[in-house]
Structures are given as structure tokens and as C-alpha cells.
Queue: 3 jobs
Job 1
Amino acid sequence: MSNLVNSINLNKTPNHIAIIMDGNGRWAKGKGMQRVFGHRNALTAVREAVDGASDIGTKYITLYAFSTENWNRPKLEVDALMSLLISSLKKELPDFQKNGIRVNSIGNIEQLPSNAQKVLLNVINQTKHNTTITLTFALSYGAREEIVNAIKNISKKVVNKEIDIEKIDEKIINNHLYTFNLPDVDLMIRTSGEQRISNFLLWQMAYAELYFTEVLWPDFRKEHLFNAIIDYQNRERRFGKTSEQIDKNE
Ligand code: FPP
């Protein structure tokens, strides 16, 4: 493990990592257990990912905890996920404070049960001055819903003459997304072997490197994160330029 960390160039770490935490259900099924057992055993992986990102100096980590589509899951599973969210936020608060973790959320938070909203807003408020890393939970989040929401809000401002149509640019759109206070995603990791984006941060991942691993989320540990980072560092991010331009730092 220490070898793995030594292989990481700390001057070239991703500033923003986004993770699709997939495979909890299959992990539980593989053990002959109910799906909820997988979600309950996902918290160690969450801690390892956040600690690992923090260790290498990453400033933003965003976790896809509950999608707009997840509301269609059986009520029992939705309720269990909400309870898990509430209990783990409460339980982790002292560690968030100790480790300088600022908690943030993106998504249509008003759709969450009111007790979940309350706990979430309290943790966000209590951790707002922490500066080591920003941990964003995507909750009731869908990228298309986010874009629709942004368009509605921009349109209202156009009607009210607060924004001139000709002035609408990428920056204005960015400022109306749930992620207005987050930088673009540099690295997106998805576990469990699925190779899809699944309506996650579509705008923000325009230039992200994508990394897929077969590991099921409850088994995800720092070493898996570090392997993803090493893979990321071996890629050349060109942002539409040529290799020669990148080499010359143009
Ligand atoms: C995907 O696995 C996981 C989810 C839909 C929920 C993610 C939730 C957690 C990791 C729980 C902890 C998070 C918080 C914020 C407390 P899946 O159920 O789709 O697995 P499958 O594809 O194997 O069925």
C-alpha cells in the first residue's frame, strides 16, 4: 500500500473526484443477503474513499448516493437508504470535524424526507468552515433534472431582465447548476464493472477521465482509489489540444 502511495505524483492529483458507488446489491446477493445489507456495508468504502482522497491532497470528492431514478426502487429499500443517510451523517459528524471535511449536497434535496433534510442541512452548516476537503453527496440527483432546473432559473431571470439573452455563456450556466460552487470533475470512478455515466454530472464531466473497476462498492478501499489515481496520472489530458502543445505547455 505504501508503495502505491509512493507511485502517486502529488503535484498531479485530481482536484475533483466523482464516484458512482455501484454494486452494493450484487455484493449482498453474493453473500446470500438482502440488498440493504450491501448498503449498510458500503460505509467503510465511503470512509476509505474520502480519507484516501484527503491523503493525496484532492480538494473535492462527490459521491452519487441517491439518483432521481432511485426513487423507483422498492419502498423498503428507499426507506433503508434514507435511514442509513440520517444515521451515518449523525455518526460521522465528529470525524468530519476532526478531519476538516466540509459536507455539501447537490440534487433536488426538497424531495428527501424532512428529517433527512434537517440532518443534512445541520451537518452542512456545522462543517461549513472546514477546509481540508469538500465532500458532496449527490442526493435525489439527476444531471438532466439539474440542467432543466438551471434553464428554468435562467429563463426567469431573462424574463425579469436580470440576464440579457446574448450574455448567456458557460459561466452563467455553471452558476445555475447545483454544482455552482464546485470545480469541473477531473476523474470519475465507477465500481462494479458497469461502464455508464447514468445521468451523473453530465455538464461537469465534459473533460473528465473515466475509470471503471470491477470491484463492488462495499469492497472498495484506499488501494483501489490509489490505483485509479495512478491510472489517471498515466493519461494525457489534452482538452482538445495536440500532444506537442501539451508538452510545450501552450
Ligand atoms: C448502488 O448499488 C448504490 C446505491 C444506489 C446507493 C449508494 C448508497 C450508499 C453507498 C450507502 C451509503 C451512502 C450514504 C450517503 C449514507 P446498487 O444498489 O445499485 O447495486 P447493484 O447494482 O449491485 O444492484
Job 2
Amino acid sequence: MSIELVKYLESARVKFLRITFCDNANVIRAKAIHLGILAENLEYPTGITVAQQALPVMSDTVVSKSGLGPIGEAWLIPDWSTLRVLPYAPTHARVLADLNLDGQPWSLCPRDFLKRAITTAEQAGIKVMAAFENEFSLLSSRNNFIVPTDDTVFASTLSMDLNREIIDAISDALIAQEIIVERYYPESAPGQQEISIRYADALGAADHQIVFRETVRGVAIQYGLKASFLPKIFADKAGNGCHLHLSLWQNGQNITGNGSGQLSTTAQNFIAGILHHLPALMALTTPSTNSYKRIRPHFWSGAFTAWGYDNREGAVRVPSNPLPPSPTHFEFKTVDASANPYLALGAVIFAGLDGVRRNLNPGEPVDIDPGLFEPAELQERGIKPLPQNLGEAILHLSADRLLLEALGSELSRAYLAVREEEWEVMKEMELDQEVSLLLERY
Ligand code: GLU
Ligand code: MG
């Protein structure tokens, strides 16, 4: 860090700098340093216990099967390019950090895992661009009941009027942090909103996901509301997805399409890799017990191992553009914001590259609604059922050699231990119990 940055933070009247990271359970955490001592600690990293990567989402109780315990210190190494003053908490600034151990990137650092995926893609001549498309719920609580800010339907202009000020404030706060806001509409469920942002390179996209979640929650607090990205809050209403939009690039050119309205072979191979690894991938992209209450047929949540052009029920949708070039990207829907974005996107990249390397074929694009077909017909079309709960997804990940090797032995051990603990503790929970425990975690 340079003394210029300290001066910039001083002139912005910042009091605390939050050195921020996201753990295996996808809890965003930070240690803050006061501006008064920052100048004399420019090169001095902030430490955290290694056990931080062994905590399940429920509580700060170390899972011993993770291989981590009270002994050992990892160091937060800020990436100064991510430094931002927080528009919703202007006396604080945030910088995103990598985790180091013994002067090296720590094998359990999620951000470094994504960097390894990016490097592997580069070695295959592919650059991945991405955006997480968040849905979230705005809520207040009354007498221990959760009350959504509206009870409107999809794209309702009434919801726009009711929530205009907070939506404007969230957008302004994102823009102030150099994120380009693209579109907004009220989503289907009560209090549910969707704001989409511009794609970025893979690391930037995952960083933006942290900024997005922090910003929505921070602004909601200013308005006396709760914001939640929990995948399923109301049993019979749409859940909160966090679809992952992806495009593949080579030598500065988007190579997702083939120039004649279809996907390129490389993009098809990449999608085939995602579909092939999907049951295991879900332990990273839909990793909470609650995630599986969202993934249901007829909820447009990616409940089938299928892909198709403009098909909102399959795991992968290829949206067509109204004007050429088309398609320019594809959308992986079996993702929600309970996923650590670095781990989820890194794993998706490794799975997609496996498809490219092995020249996997994703099969024919699906142009039916798989939710309307009998299991036997689905099987004929090669459409397979997905894990029905986190426990099943964990078993698939535990047996997926490609993803385990990509994660590495230490990260996969700790990650699986954390998620297994969550599954053991929460598998019998009813939705309302799970919602009250997790609503404000994600
Ligand atoms: N809310 C749906 C989901 O759970 C997505 C609806 C849509 O934007 O297509 O993923
Ligand atoms: Mg949506």
C-alpha cells in the first residue's frame, strides 16, 4: 500500500479500513484497521486463525474433521485494486484480501483457488468472462414474522414505486464502487428484486459478487430493512437464484457463438463439462441445505441436467440476442448466493475446461419443459435427476476426482468438512427454522 492511498482515505474521512475475505461457508468477514495506525503498518499484514476456514455457517465452532484447529495463522494480503470507500458506511473502506501462509498463497484461500482456475483456462487459451445475476429479498420483521416490502408479482410497476428509493440507493452505491448497473426489475416473489450488473473477467466478477452482497445489505440497513439472498424463504413462492452468466474469449474475441446463431464447439464442450460435473458442482454452487428447497421444476431454477436455447428450466440456458451477434454468452442457473463466489466460479471453470479437454458433447439442446415429462422420457433424452439435498451433492463432490484435485487436498478436506457439518445439523430442519437461522447469513 502506498502512502498516497492512506492520504486518499484520510481526505475521504475514513476511520476504519475493513480487510475483507469470504470463508468456506460463504460468510463475508473482515478485520478492520484504524486509519490512525495505517501509515505505520503499510506492509504489515493482518492475521487470522487458520480455523477461520473450518467454521460452518451456523456458528463459530471449529469443525475438527477439517484438519484445522487453534494453532496456525494465515495472513490477509489486500488486493489494493479493490479498495473502495463504502457509500453505505462512509466512515469505513473495504479492501478484498487473499490469504497467505508462510509467504505463499494459502492452499485454502478461495480467491487463490479462482486464480488457479483462471491460469488453467489461460493455459488452454481461454479467458472466461462472467457476471453473477442476483435475486434478493427486501424484508422487515414484525413480532418475529418476516414481512416482505411488497406482495407484488414479476416486473410489477407497483413494486418499482414502493421500492424506488432503496433500489436507486443500491444502484448509486454500486456505481460509486465502479460497478456498472445494467437492468433492474422486481422479481416474482414478495419483496424480491433483481439488479443485474456488467460482466467482468472471472476474478472481477467474483469480487463484484462480494461487493454486491455487502452493498445490498448495507443499504437495506440504512432503510431499516433486512436484505437476504437466502435461496428459499417462502415455500410456495419463487426462490432467490444467482445465475452465473459466462462467455468464453480467445485473443480478445468472444468465441461463445459460432457466427451462425449457435454455440461454438468450444462453448458446447464447456457446457458439457458443467453438466457432466453438475451433481458434484452443486456442493459448491448450491451449497446450503436451503438451496435444495429452491431447485424445483417449474420454478426456473435449473432443476435438470439439460441445456437449451432460451429454455429457462434447464441448468444451462443460452439466451439469444435480438440482434447479431448471437449467442454471446450462456447462463448457468443451478447457482445461488449461498455459494462462495470464488469457489463456485473456480469450480465451474475447472468443470468446463474438463469438457473442452475431453471434447465432451452436451447432447441435443432441449426445447421442451422437462418438468412436464415422465422420468422414463427424461432418461431417454439423457436428462438426469439432480441431487435432492446437500447430503447427496456432498457425496458426489467427494467422488469427483477432477474437482477434488482442482481444489487440492487441504481445501477440499476443509470445505467438505464444513458442509458435512452443516448438513448433519440442518438436514431435519423445517423451512421456517432454517430461514430464521440463515436469513441474515447470506
Ligand atoms: N427465481 C428463479 C430462480 O430461482 C429465476 C427466475 C428467472 O430470473 O429466470 O432461479
Ligand atoms: Mg430473475
Job 3
Amino acid sequence: MSKTDQQSGLTLEALGWTAELENSFAALRERQWVPGRVVAEDKHHYVVFSPHGALTGRVAGRLLHSAKTPAELPKVGDWVALTPYPREEKALIHQVLPRQTVLSRKLPGRETAEQVLVANVALAFVVQSADERFNPRLLERYLLMITEGGIRPVVALNKCDLCASPDELAAQAAAAAPAAPVLMVSAKTGRGIRQLAQLIRPRETVVFIGPSGVGKSSLINRLYGEEIAATAEVRESDLKGRHTTAWRELIVLPNGGLVIDTPGMREFHLWTRAASLRDAFPEIVELETACKFTRCSHTAEKNCAVLAAVAQGRLSPERHQSFLKLKRELEYLEKAGRVRRRKDGGRPGDYLASHPAE
Ligand code: GDP
Ligand code: ZN
């Protein structure tokens, strides 16, 4: 263990490095490369944690030129293979290891370019405020993006101290997010914070996403407890006066969980595929097995089990409409040639799509 490593107290294992990752790294070690994890990024630099401590990373020319899209370059959360230059606290990044999960959005101004926000995240907390700004439709869109990337979603309705009818709101959220646990929390009073913390396992990486002002930073501060103020200083000294506007950061919680806090996640365009549409609406997938027509659009057909469920009050009209709207968008984009059909053996109708902004 190097001096810097002992100083920072961070090992690769603490950042989520596993025996499996180590095995997959064997061939790269033969090239004298070492593993590291990207913890921050700005326009020109990466901050990479390695067995030699925190290093300023640069992408090797070969990787830069061989990358066909920006999505293939290192992102926060990525495991990479690098050559360390510990004396200068620098590193040359040669390769990005295969990503276990990915949170992506559409690149602004381009039709189908994928922008990876963060990689190798296990859990995403979708935060909304428990007030009049609560928006179940927006919740559905976030959940699509998250499940698309292989990440487990949790819904956190914050500011429940301001909410007159928290049970009602929780029920609405549960209806919009049938596959995700829903927590009522308050960063102000501390309600629900322990339950939220218990969902974060040591060495697992989590993110908080949601509109600005819902209390993401406050929740992270709460989780971190008193130590957060000290961290802010460490973070700044890590970056040593380099551009700090667009960089993203990784926080180690007292229980060993890792929080990546990325300002860039606040606005996004959905980047999703139809498989996730099904994941987001499991009750409709179940209902439609009873539709008379296999290709039922659930809009006007006879013996449509989905329409019947709406008529009988077993499925809310909002859920039905929201499903139809997202499905229409996907179909429109497919016709307009803005989506790629999956060629990797996905289910029929699976495709990659970009959504218009909310
Ligand atoms: P972010 O933009 O999502 O990171 O939101 P912030 O954490 O900056 O919080 C936005 C505002 O909401 C701040 O004024 C917070 O003090 C306030 N806030 C955050 N959590 C709570 C809460 O649980 N209850 C109340 N009443 N206010 C909160
Ligand atoms: Zn139907």
C-alpha cells in the first residue's frame, strides 16, 4: 500500500473493486497497467483513485482515437486500466472496463447520441418533493431511464414534513413506480433517513437524481452527518484549483456506501428502450395477456383487457394515458428513424430511443 493510499484511507476494495473485477483484469496487469476508478471529471481532466492514491487522469491517445462515440470514453464511476505516475500524481488511462450498469441521457442538440452520465451505479434514489410539485409522470420517466441502465430504483419523497397527506402521496408514487420501494423522508426532520441509509450497502455506489430544489443535496448531507463539511475541503484540495465547474464527485458514507453526486444529472432527456417501458408498466404487461388481439393498442379494440381494467377502476386512467403517450413517442421516433432496433437478440419491439425533453 502506498503512502498516498494510507493517507486517503481509500482502497480499491472500498471503492467497490471485487475479486471478479480483479480476475477480469489479469491480462491487463500483464501490460503493467493497474486498475483505478474515475471519481470526478471536468472538461480536461479526470480524478482517478488508484492503488497510488488520487491521480489526475488523462486519456491515452490510442483510446481517444479508437473511441467511436463519447460514450466509450471514461465516465465518472468507470473502472479503468491506467499507467500511474505517482510522483507527479498523474495517470494515463488506456482502457475502460466493461460497465455493469449505466445511467445515460440524450446528448443535447443531437438526435441519437448517448451521453453516459455515470457508470457502475447499483442504486438510484429518485427524489421528488412531497408537495404540489410532486409529478408521477416525471417519476415514470426517471424510472425508465434507470431500469434501462440496469440500476435498481428507489423513490424518495422528500419534505414530507410539509405534506398534509403523506399516505395519499405515497400511494400515488407507488402506483407510478410499481417496481420500486417508495420512502417518505425529510432531510429537515430526519424522518425516513435511517431506512434510506439501510438500502445503501457498503462499497455499493448510489446516485440521487431528480429536479433541482427537491432536496438531493440536503439528503446526502443528512446521510453523511457531521462529516460532510470536512469532505468539502478534501474535495477542493484534491482538485487543486483546477476547473471545478463541471466535475462530479464521489462521497464515501460512514457505512462504506458510495454516493456519486453529479450536477449534470439534473436535466436530462430519456434514453431508453421499449423493454424498459414494459418494466415501468408491469401491470399493463400483465393485463394485456388477456387482450383479444395480440397486437392490441389498448385504445379502441374490442375485448381489450387494459381498457376494461380502466373502465372497472382497476387501472388508473393516468397510468393508461401515460403508457400510451410513451409508447406513441417510441413508435414515432422509430418511424422517423431516430431509434435503432436492437440487434442483440432483445425481445421483438425492443429498440433504443431518444425521448423529447419533459
Ligand atoms: P437539490 O437542488 O435537490 O440538491 O435541493 P437542496 O438540497 O439544495 O434543497 C432545496 C431546498 O429545500 C433548500 O432550501 C432546503 O433547505 C430545502 N429542503 C431540503 N430538504 C427539506 C425537507 O425535508 N423539508 C423542508 N421543509 N425543506 C427541505
Ligand atoms: Zn388491449
